[in-house]
Amino acid sequence: MLKYIFGFIIVLAIVLVAITVGANNDQVITFNYMFAQSDFKLSTLVAILFGVGLILGWLITGIFYLKLKIKNIALTRQVKRLNQQVNELTTSLNKAA
Fold it and tell me: GO terms for biological process (predicted)?
């Protein structure tokens, strides 16, 4: 639980720093993207790009985390199954001896 609170505090601090840095930039710039171009304040553009990057990073991290979690569950089942087989073989060898 403590690591989630710590992670939330770190993310909140990063967001606050990004907003603070972006708030000092009032210049209007032209942003060209694939299909069009728009005029944005630099602070707005920094906030948007930071938010998109943060969300994209969390999604990619979440995908890898879920893959590892699923793999862990499958390996845990396999270990339980193999332990059960070892126990069955051990008991059958003990009965035979």
Answer: lipopolysaccharide metabolic process
Segments forming the whole domain that contains residue 65: 1-69
How many folded domains does the chain comprise? 1
Report the pLDDT value the prediction gives residue 82, as an integer from 0 to 100.
96
Per residue in 9-25, pLDDT (tens digit) is 888 888 787 777 666 77
HEC secondary structure over the chain: CHHHHHHHHHHHHHHHHHHHHHHCCCCEEEEECCCCEEEEEHHHHHHHHHHHHHHHHHHHHHHHHHHHHHHHHHHHHHHHHHHHHHHHHHHHHHHHC
